[in-house]
Specification:
Pfam families: zf_Tbcl, zf_Tbcl_2. β3 and β4 form a beta hairpin. The chain is of the alpha+beta class. The chain starts with a strand and ends with a helix. It binds zinc ion (2 copies). The site of one zinc ion has 8 residues, from α3.
């Protein structure tokens, strides 16, 4: 029968348990390789592969930017949304200054 095994995650280096029931499950599925990653990293990878989560920082699609004029200081700026016209648009500086209050 199977016994719990301690494996080392190749992503984060954490020791994790490859439990007897998991080993059985793997054997049933015909997997010959032991899992190389801890459950957390496996879940994170899965999420990334599904395009969800915030892990894929390097492949984040470029956000479309819209030219706008800052309502406070009047400089040309770019905002990540289409300026609607009925709401003042602020540059990054003025925005962070405003949101602080
Ligand atoms: Zn890990
Ligand atoms: Zn401004």
């Amino acid at each position: 029968m199977y016994q719990d095994k301690t494996l080392n995650c190749r992503d984060c280096g954490t020791d994790f348990t490859f439990s007897a029931s998991e080993q059985e499950f793997y054997a049933e599925k015909g997997f010959t390789n032991e899992p190389g990653r801890c459950p957390q990293c496996r879940a994170a990878r899965k999420q990334r592969n599904n395009g969800g989560g915030f892990g894929g920082r390097s492949q984040r699609p470029q956000r479309e930017m819209f030219a706008a004029t800052c309502a406070a200081c009047g400089i040309e700026t770019e905002v990540p949304f289409r300026p609607s016209g009925d709401r003042p648009v602020y540059c990054r500086d003025c925005f962070s200054r405003n949101s602080r209050y």
